[in-house]
């Protein structure tokens, strides 16, 4: 909640249509009895991307491009979630999401970080530790551990290096229903900022998840969807070819984002997303399947003592 307040306070000084905060009190001893945020109720209804026409989608995408351009005008020095000091100033602190927090003895959130690679190395190491502790992927620990070892080994190849060293605010739940629109599909509000964080340009201005071609993406196909192509084109036409280029080259980061801590209940979907990343890295193995990759990975990482321990545990359960 502290991060959400700080984020909304920051956005109030931009042209991004986010709720205004009227009051907040995060101390549970307040008269209400729980921490609260009293914020503006934004007009409009949640966007249902699958029910929109091509013309309506283009209108929304055009407005999203303007929001991206506005957020590019406000940079930060590190990667994490916004927090607010006692004087009301915002700065970057640890990540606010549960997926980037550890609860071993007390709550410990990851960050802030000075680079995207530093963030992902810490995040993946946390996931590996949670797998060992049987807190993640308990039904497929060896498979999940192999995937994350592979991600860790290939981080430098996967990641884009942003040369300006700056970080920008990114909404962390961009499925589409965070966008409110009126009957004419004017964007009236962007909501649900509680997990927002800063990231380098390649992360902050990659195409929103709502624009992904879902069937292709889950099938491991790395081609951009029509909506993404329109988004990149509009950014370029508005005088920001650098942002358009980020959208066109953003599939690696989409797949890395989905692979880290993905919901294991949809294992087939997870494998499809992961293999899309592997095939992109190994362009001569476009037909590589999971069984072949796993055999190779077990051999490659056979000296990892944690993997040996997991394999033994899985064998006896």
Question: What are the defining features of this structure?
Answer:
three-stranded antiparallel beta sheet, 317 residues, alpha+beta
What is shown here, in short?
With 317 residues, the protein is an alpha+beta fold.
Describe what this molecule looks like in 3D.
The protein has 13 helices and twelve strands. The longest helix is centred in the first third of the chain and has 19 residues. The two termini are 40 Å apart. Helices cover 44% and strands 12% of the residues. This is Aminoglycoside phosphotransferase.
- Distance between the first and last residues' Cα: 40 Å
Strand order of the largest sheet: 3-10-11
Instruction: Write the H/E string, N to C.
Output: HEEEHEEEEEHHHEEEEHHHHHHHH
Report the biggest beta sheet as strand number plus sense, adding barrel if it closes: 3 strands, antiparallel
What does the overall shape look like?
globular
Percent of residues in helices comes to: 40-55%
Number of helices: 13
Given as residue ranges, the uncertain stretches (5+ residues, pLDDT < 50) are none
Based on helices, strands and strand pairing, what is the structural class?
alpha+beta
Number of strands: 12
Proportion of strand residues? 5-15%
Kindly report the average pLDDT value: 93
If you compute it from the alpha carbons, what radius of gyration comes out, rounded to the nearest whole angstrom? 21 Å
List the helices and strands and how they pair.
Blueprint lengths: L1 H10 L9 E5 L10 E4 L5 E2 L7 H19 L2 E2 L4 E4 L5 E4 L7 E2 L5 E2 L6 H17 L8 H13 L1 H4 L8 E4 L8 E3 L5 E4 L6 E3 L1 H4 L9 H5 L7 H12 L3 H8 L2 H9 L7 H15 L8 H11 L4 H11 L2
Antiparallel strand pairs: 1-2, 3-10, 4-9, 5-6, 7-8, 9-12, 10-11
Helix pairs in contact: 2-8, 3-4, 4-13, 8-9, 10-11
């Amino acid at each position: 909640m502290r991060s959400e307040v700080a984020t909304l306070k920051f956005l109030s000084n931009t042209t991004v249509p986010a709720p205004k905060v009227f009051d907040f009190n995060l101390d549970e001893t307040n008269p209400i009895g729980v921490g609260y945020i009293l914020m503006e109720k934004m007009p409009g209804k949640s966007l249902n991307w699958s029910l929109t026409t091509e013309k309506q989608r283009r209108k929304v995408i055009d407005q999203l491009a303007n929001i991206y351009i506005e957020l590019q005008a406000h940079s930060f020095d590190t990667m994490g979630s916004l927090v607010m000091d006692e004087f009301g100033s915002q700065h970057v602190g640890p990540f606010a999401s549960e997926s980037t927090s550890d609860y071993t003895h007390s709550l410990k959130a990851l960050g802030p970080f000075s680079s995207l690679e530093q963030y992902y190395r810490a995040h993946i190491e946390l996931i590996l530790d949670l797998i060992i502790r049987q807190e993640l992927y308990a039904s497929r620990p060896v498979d999940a551990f192999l995937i994350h070892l592979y991600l860790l080994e290939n981080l430098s190849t996967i990641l884009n290096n942003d040369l300006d060293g700056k970080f920008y605010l990114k909404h962390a739940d961009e499925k589409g229903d965070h966008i409110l629109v009126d009957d004419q599909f004017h964007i009236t509000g962007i909501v649900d900022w509680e997990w927002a964080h800063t990231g380098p340009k390649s992360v902050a201005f990659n195409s929103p998840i709502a624009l992904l071609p879902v069937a292709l993406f889950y099938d491991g196909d790395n081609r951009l969807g029509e909506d993404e192509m329109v988004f990149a084109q509009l950014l370029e036409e508005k005088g920001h070819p650098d942002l358009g280029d980020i959208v066109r080259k953003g599939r690696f980061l989409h797949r890395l984002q989905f692979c880290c801590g993905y919901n294991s209940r949809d294992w087939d979907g997870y494998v499809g997303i992961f293999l899309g990343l592997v095939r992109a890295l190994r362009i001569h193995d476009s037909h590589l399947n999971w069984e072949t990759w796993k055999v190779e990975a077990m051999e490659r990482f056979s000296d990892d003592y944690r993997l040996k321990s997991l394999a033994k545990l899985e064998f006896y359960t």
